[in-house]
Structure formats: structure tokens, C-alpha cells
Amino acid sequence: NAGVMQNPRHLVRRRGQEARLRCSPMKGHSHVYWYRQLPEEGLKFMVYLQKENIIDESGMPKERFSAEFPKEGPSILRIQQVVRGDSAAYFCASSTMQGGPYEQYFGPGTRLTVT
Amino acid sequence: AQKVTQAQTEISVVEKEDVTLDCVYETRDTTYYLFWYKQPPSGELVFLIRRNSFDEQNEISGRYSWNFQKSTSSFNFTITASQVVDSAVYFCALSEAIQGAQKLVFGQGTRLTINP
């Protein structure tokens, strides 16, 4: 049973470019969470999505960041016009909601470097 | 608001010593879950334990043990007879309910170095 997949594992972008990070949840999981880890810091919640719905985006920066989880295909975290401060590790986690508690399974992360 | 505090930024011990990582949390929820994750140098997050707020029994798994004390809002993690492979950053996290699912609030992490 494959775990949570994230790609790419490493992404380098120049300032002003767009970054697209992909997350494929575990089989049977319909809930996806995105977290950001800035250098030397803990993870911070960004957004929680179910298929075709954004449930909570309270941790998302107001501009340039967006997320989606379409009916088919992976969840995408998109960062437009990247700046140096966006350099971080972005982790995706997935869970199922069949009773609780719902353990979140984390992917290996995408390390974004903005030059 | 939910908050997790890991006051120890870095800990360095010699192999075979016991080491305890502290975690203190704040929440208004009566039902919540606490977690520990390990992040080795390779960068992935490894789940270690989940504990719900109604279960205050201590847990032991091999060389790892956890002490959950609701009275002091603490969920400390002890590694007995530490090994070099235990070197990693360890995160404590608290769940915050969102429409039935959980948003994790992480502490800042404790960087543990085990020296040979």
C-alpha cells in the first residue's frame, strides 16, 4: 500500500516564477492537509481540503498561494510569483474519516528553494 | 488558541544516556489528541505516537516511553539508552478539531544529538 506521495521532492524556482507542488494521498484517503516548515521551525498548518472542497484555509497566506484537490488527480499547492521567503519544506498529509481519531500520514515533503 | 511549547531547542547527550524531551500544551478543547513525530536528517516525518486526552496511561514502546499528565498539560517523551540513530528533530503536536477532522499544531521542535 503506497504511502503519501509528493513530487517533486526538490524544486528550485527563480523569484517571480510559479511553483506547483503535488500530493497524492494514500489509497482510500479523501482528506489532505498541507503544512509548511520554514528553516529551523516547526510545521505550520496551511490548508485542509476534501475532494473538490477547501474546508479550512486559515493558514494560507492571503496572496499568491492557492490549493485544490480535484475529483481526479493529486492535490496541488500553487505558489505564484515566488519570493525568497517562500523557501521552505512543504509537507502534505492525508487521512481518512472513518471514525476517529484520524491519524495523519505525512509525505516526504517538497523542498522549495527560491533563488 | 491551541499552543504547543517545546522549551528545549537543542539537547546533546552521550550514547546510552537517557534523555527526556519536554512538551507542554494549551487547549480549551476537552477532547484532543497529542502526537510525537521524529524528523531525521533525511527530512521525512516519522509518526511515533498518538494519545487521546482521556487516556492518561503512560506508554512504553521499546526504548521509548511517554508520560502524559493532564494536570500539568504535559506530554513528555523519554528515550532510554539512547543511540546515535536517535539523533533527529522531535516534534510534539496537538490536534485541533476542524469539522470532525484534525489540524495539527506543532511545537518548534527539539534537536536531539546523540554523540558516540
SSE layout and pairings?
The complex is a heterodimer of chains A (115) and B (116).
Chain A: E1 5-7, E2 10-13, E3 19-24, E4 31-37, E5 43-50, E6 53-56, E7 65-68, E8 75-79, E9 88-95, E10 105-106, E11 110-114
Chain B: E1 3-5, E2 10-14, E3 19-21, E4 24-26, E5 33-39, E6 46-52, E7 59-61, E8 64-69, E9 74-79, E10 88-98, E11 101-106, E12 110-115
Parallel strand pairs in B: 2-12
Antiparallel strand pairs in B: 1-4, 3-9, 5-6, 5-10, 7-8, 8-9, 10-11, 10-12
Provide a descriptive summary of the structure in words.
The complex is a heterodimer of chains A (115) and B (116). Chain A is built from no helices and eleven strands. In chain A, strands 2, 4, 5, 6, 9, 10 and 11 form a seven-stranded mixed β-sheet that branches. In chain A, strands 1-3-8-7 form a four-stranded antiparallel β-sheet, with no helix packed on it. Chain A has strands at 5-7, 10-13, 19-24, 31-37, 43-50, 53-56, 65-68, 75-79, 88-95, 105-106, 110-114. Chain A is mainly beta and 115 residues long. By secondary structure, chain B is an all-beta fold. In chain B, strands 2, 5, 6, 10, 11 and 12 form a six-stranded mixed β-sheet that branches. Chain B has a four-stranded antiparallel β-sheet with strand order 3-9-8-7, with no helix packed on it. Helices cover 0% and strands 57% of the residues of chain B. Classes of the chains: A mainly beta (115), B mainly beta (116). Chains A and B meet through strand 4, strand 5, strand 9 and strand 10 of A and strand 6, strand 10 and strand 11 of B.
The total of beta strands of chain B comes to: 12
* Overall outline of chain B: globular
Q: Structural class, from secondary structure content of chain A?
A: mainly beta
Alpha carbon gyration radius of chain B: 14 Å
Query: Gyration radius of chain A, to the nearest Å?
Result: 14 Å
Q: Please state the structural category of chain B.
A: mainly beta
* Number of alpha- plus pi-helical segments of chain A: 0
In round numbers, the mean pLDDT of chain A is 91
Spans of at least 5 consecutive residues with low confidence of chain B: none
Strand fraction of chain B equals over 45%
Largest sheet of chain B, in brief, is: 6 strands, mixed
